[in-house]
Amino acid sequence: MGRGASSASVGETSSGALPLEIEGVFAGYGAPGRRPYLDVLRDVTLSIARGELAIVIGPNGAGKSTLLRVLSGTLRPRAGKSRLFGQDVAALPRRDVARRVALVSQVSEVAFGYRVEQVVMMGRSPHQGGLQLASRDDRDAARDAMDKTGILPLSDRPVAELSGGEQKLVALARAFAQRPEVLLLDEPSAHLDPRHGIAIFELVVSEVRQRRLACAAIAHDLNLAAAFGDRIVLLDEGRVRACGPVEAVMTPGHLVAVFGDELRVEATPAGPCFVPRRRPPDTRPSSERDL
Fold it and tell me: How confident is the model over 205-233, as pLDDT tens digits?
């Protein structure tokens, strides 16, 4: 898979503002100035360009989902700046943000009482009037999104009858139908087998390239991150430990420091491969040896 932009200094909009920028961000949960308040992100600076897929990796609790919430404007930083095309994203009307930013959560929020086509059409809501009447453009966008994701034959099926993988595609199609300029994905390949995980990222890369979206995606599968990421953002304890091309970030030194020495990095003709180290039988816990 060819890679596009590899730094935040390229791909600026015609106005000169990058789609996503955060600078010196501290963000967490609770009421600032009161106890308890926990900073999950600490002094994070990052920007993402048009046509770029930045993949965020890091251990559980590193702040990956919090980062997406700051980028989407659903979480206001305690300190620092978060900008959408040069404007403070948290200060913008949510409807304006929704027209430009699509967020696909880790847990699919598809409405189980609806058919596939109805759920995908929900992506058009920010572009519709108060009566939520679908225009021809809305219907075309929804149909195009279902066609791209391969779920057009399922358009009349109730979402509740679909497999987990198919529901992921419905959530992705809803985001595509929104026709955003920024796409934020929280573990889009979670709970999918390798073939379907690859297919999801292929769809994302195709949409990012064709529509020149700025995209940030969280991934726990390091091999998918290395295969598809234009840039890797390695988070550890709320800070950016490394940010840059795969070859510069996904090194044994960086990964062992963050994930521990249970991870082995192997060089292959297609790029680095990441596999867990297998413990010798006599070093495993007794409970594992008895299985």
Answer: 999 999 999 999 999 999 999 999 999 99
Please count the structural domains in the chain: 2
Residues 166 and 213 in one domain: no
Note whether 174 and 236 are same-domain residues.
Answer: no
CA atoms within 13 A on the CB side of 130: 0
Other beta carbons within 10 Å of 276: 9
**Mean pLDDT across 247-268:** 89
In a domain, 276, yes or no: no
Model pTM above 0.85: yes
On whether residue 4 sits in a domain, the answer given is yes
Q: What is the residue-wise DSSP string for 46-66?
A: EEE-TTEEEEEE--TTSSHHH
Which helix (H) or strand (E) segment holds residue 258: the answer is helix 252-259
Does 95 fall in a domain? no
User: Which two three-digit tokens encode residue 199?
Assistant: 């297919």
Q: Are 146 and 65 within 8 A, CB to CB?
A: no
Q: What ranges make up the beta strands (E) of the chain? A: 20-30, 37-48, 52-57, 79-84, 87-88, 101-104, 182-186, 214-218, 231-236, 239-244, 263-268, 271-276
Reply yes or no on whether the pLDDT at 5 is more than 70: no
Nearest of 168, 123, 124 to residue 150 by alpha carbon: 168
Structure tokens at 111: 């409405």
25-66 pLDDT tens trace? 999 998 666 666 789 999 999 999 999 999 999 999 999 999
